[in-house]
Specification:
172 residues; alpha+beta; Alpha-Beta Plaits; elongated
Length: 172
Amino acid sequence: MKKEDKVKKIDEIGGIIKEYSHFYLVDVTAMNAADTSAMRAKCYKQEIKMLVVKNKLLAKAFEASGIDYSPLFPCLKGTTAMLLCNTANAPAKLIKEVAGKGTIPALKGAYAEESFYVGADQLENLINIKSKNELIAEVVALLQSPIKNVVSALQSGANTIHGVLKTLGERE
């Protein structure tokens, strides 16, 4: 590969990394072409971009990004595929799903929610990360809970007061 081509590829990888807020580095060595193709299709359905990259070019793109990705440098060995997305836990769930079917994409490392996760043992931690939408839904549910309790108490109290008044009105 010519030097000009390498520089273009590094810039391209750097641009893709900037587009997405989270990415995973996955070892796809054990996967054959059919399994890799099936995984790409699943990634596409879940709005995850799968990109197979050369480790040296990815390291250069990391260095040029302005963010210190040095904790991920030891992960840049063997065959590396990047799973990029804007939902932190989506690739982790996908990796677990695909690994559950016998195909083994191994997690090397990840950059999610501005934190580094290195090693396959971090997969469960990554799955448990809540997305922005999940956190918003939890906050809304927590805020609605006291309001629902007050409304419920007022409604049941109104029925009780109404019943008492009705009974008192029917007395002679």
